[in-house]
């Protein structure tokens, strides 16, 4: 729609992964269905129409590009939804899916991304499948798929770098274990339990976890991204933390999506974990003492330190004040490269002093998530804003204010005025007071002036950082 050069440049980019555009309703937008069916041989079209499958108008038009030759991906869920356009009968949809997979594998020059959640077709039996699957870099799947399917994939897919597994069916699946074992350069691994608590979880569930992570341990030389969400908290606390996690010594990104509690032996194991290359920690460990230990050992290259402040259990113990103070110190002593930081502390004089010291030392900070926990009725909000104006690093572009922080209109106006000349600031809050008209008018004024880039009021779930 601009010119020929733009068109010829853009089409290959858009068609690398034509199933990935979340704002497209693929059933209502029928263009993909039309384009893919254009590739079918006339004999196949005739056979399909004889089965009662409706082919749409436009099939006789010549294509401007060989679109499928640019495709580098297959997404089973999207393709399944597209094939439902031609017929509502499950048998007919199954036949169309088979034809679509065959076409894509035949036409695409190399396959990089494969999402086979809910697949029912053994695509590795297609004539061109071996060559295509050998180039696969990313695979997304779930455990409900029969183990034999993974055995079939493991013959060809041995260069996967990103493996994402949803555990939707908590039963032993040796095929997944085999698929992990044959990988030669696995760098990115995600595991997410996604089954209902009332599912029939058999006695082999723990054994399944054990076999999966023992196979994963053998990839420690290449693995640099690990994300784990396991519903069996006893297993992850007693086995995973103590015996498995310390062995992934080359990790750069560690994400653990479950809240855990630890006894003294487990805490000692955590204190001993050392990852010399770690850049991101995003965890639900809910004690500041544990997080402080982790950053003391692993903070040198740390760029993101993220956790959920509202889950911190230190708040209910007498040691919270000291633990939060120690946490601030550990950050500025051990994390010179920190860019994204979650932090929680009470509004005490010593904490504000240490927080300001952190701002002055950690000059790479781009984003701060701040929660002030307090039952003290005093104007500490103004003091916090003063410290940010006085000592915030020049790179700071986003602040998330949580807890009981409620800034007056006067305090906010003064803060915005003094922020002039710096990076336009994005602010995220959770208090609905900022949606009131007076606050909205104030924010809009400073948006127009270029002082504020964005100002949002969100829920607790969206307030925390997401990776």
Oligomeric state of this protein: single chain
Beta strand count: 14
Average pLDDT value? 85
First-residue to last-residue Cα separation = 35 Å
Could you say what the CATH topology of the domain at 137-277 is called? Answer: Leucine-rich repeat, LRR (right-handed beta-alpha superhelix)
Helix content: 40-55%
Strand order of the largest sheet: 1-2-3-4-5-6-7-8-9-10-11-12-13-14
Q: Give the second-level CATH assignment, the architecture of the domain at 137-277.
A: Alpha-Beta Horseshoe
Structural class: alpha/beta
The value of Rg in angstroms is 27 Å
Low-confidence stretches: none
Strand content: 15-25%
Query: What characteristic shape results from the CA principal axes?
Result: globular
Biggest sheet layout: 14 strands, parallel
Alpha plus pi helix count: 18
In the CATH scheme, the class of the domain at 137-277 would be Alpha Beta
SSE blueprint and pairings:
Elements: H1 4-14, H2 31-38, H3 42-50, E1 73-75, H4 76-83, H5 90-107, E2 113-115, H6 129-134, E3 138-142, H7 147-154, E4 162-167, H8 174-181, E5 188-193, H9 205-217, E6 225-229, H10 233-244, E7 253-260, H11 264-272, E8 280-285, H12 288-298, E9 304-306, H13 320-334, E10 340-345, H14 349-361, E11 367-372, H15 380-391, E12 398-403, H16 409-419, E13 425-429, H17 437-448, E14 452-457, H18 460-463
Parallel strand pairs: 1-2, 2-3, 3-4, 4-5, 5-6, 6-7, 7-8, 8-9, 9-10, 10-11, 11-12, 12-13, 13-14
């Amino acid at each position: 729609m601009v010119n020929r050069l733009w068109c010829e440049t853009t089409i290959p980019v858009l068609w690398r992964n034509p199933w990935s555009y979340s704002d497209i309703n693929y059933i209502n937008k029928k263009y993909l269905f039309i384009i893919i069916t254009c590739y079918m041989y006339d004999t196949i079209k005739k056979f399909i129409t004889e089965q009662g499958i409706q082919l749409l108008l436009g099939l006789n038009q010549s294509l401007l590009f060989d679109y499928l030759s640019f495709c580098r991906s297959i997404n089973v869920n999207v393709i399944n939804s597209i094939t439902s356009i031609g017929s509502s009968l499950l048998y007919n949809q199954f036949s169309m899916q088979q034809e679509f997979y065959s076409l894509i594998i035949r036409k695409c020059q190399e396959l990089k991304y494969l999402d086979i959640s809910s697949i029912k077709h053994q695509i590795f039996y297609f004539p061109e499948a071996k060559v295509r699957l050998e180039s696969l870099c990313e695979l997304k799947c779930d455990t409900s798929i029969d183990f034999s399917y993974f055995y079939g994939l493991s013959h060809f897919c041995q260069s996967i770098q990103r493996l994402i597994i949803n555990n939707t069916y908590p039963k032993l699946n040796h095929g997944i274990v085999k698929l992990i074992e044959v990988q030669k350069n696995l760098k990115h691994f995600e595991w997410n339990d996604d089954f209902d608590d009332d599912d029939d979880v058999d006695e082999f569930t723990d054994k399944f976890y054990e076999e999966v992570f023992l196979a994963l341990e053998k990839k420690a030389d290449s693995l640099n991204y690990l994300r784990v969400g396991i519903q069996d908290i006893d297993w992850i606390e007693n086995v995973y933390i103590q015996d498995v996690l310390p062995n992934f010594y080359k990790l750069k990104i560690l994400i653990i999506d479950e809240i855990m509690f630890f006894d003294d032996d487990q805490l000692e194991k955590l204190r001993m974990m050392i990852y010399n290359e770690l850049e991101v920690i995003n965890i639900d460990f809910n004690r500041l003492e544990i997080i402080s230990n982790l950053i003391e050992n692993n903070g040198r290259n740390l760029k993101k330190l993220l956790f959920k402040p509202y889950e911190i259990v230190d708040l209910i113990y007498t040691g919270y004040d000291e633990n939060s103070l120690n946490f601030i110190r550990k950050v500025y002593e051990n994390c010179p490269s920190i860019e994204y930081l979650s932090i929680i502390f009470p509004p005490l004089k010593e904490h504000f002093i240490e927080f300001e010291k952190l701002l002055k030392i950690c000059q790479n900070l781009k984003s701060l998530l701040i929660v002030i926990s307090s039952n003290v009725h005093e104007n500490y909000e103004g003091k916090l804003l003063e410290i940010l104006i006085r000592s915030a690093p020049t790179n700071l572009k986003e602040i998330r204010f949580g807890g009981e922080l409620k800034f007056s209109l006067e305090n906010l106006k003064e803060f915005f005025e003094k922020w002039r000349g710096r990076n336009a600031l994005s602010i995220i809050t959770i208090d609905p007071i900022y949606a009131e008209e007076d606050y909205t008018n104030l924010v809009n004024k400073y948006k127009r002036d270029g002082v504020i880039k964005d100002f949002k009021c969100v829920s607790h779930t969206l307030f925390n950082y997401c990776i």
